[in-house]
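INTERNAL TRANSFER SHEET
From: sequence group
To: structure group
Subject: Transposase

Please process the attached sequence and return the structure record in the designated field. Keep the field labels unchanged so the import script can parse them.
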Amino acid sequence: MTDEQWSQLAPLLPPQRPWTGRPGLDHRTVLNGVLWITRFGSAWRDLPERYGNWKTVRSRFYRWQPQGLWAQLLTRVQERADHAGQVEWNVHMIDRTIVRAHQSAAGAKKGTAMKRSAGHKADSERRAT
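Return from structure group:
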């Protein structure tokens, strides 16, 4: 994350907890770790060490989820970009990885039995003696 991007997001995050006891991981490192996970679709345990302990990043991610922080960040970033004229609201995009098609969408006709392959038929005629 660039310094400019961080300067826009930092005020939107909750206050950093005071340093009592063991110092906590700063929000910028955590946010970079979350962005790394979402970009590569990796497991939490595979998070590189430069982003801190994967358990810390994961726990903060899940702590912020019920607080609605991620939705607030998206809304505020969109509002700022819209105010600056950087958003085209008439352009839409759907990620195919989240849209599931029904099995009949693969070209199968409804109500017809599937034909078995010749290999399957030959295999079913064999009998053990």
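Handover comment: The radius of gyration is 25 Å. The chain is about 45% helix and 0% strand.
Transfer complete.
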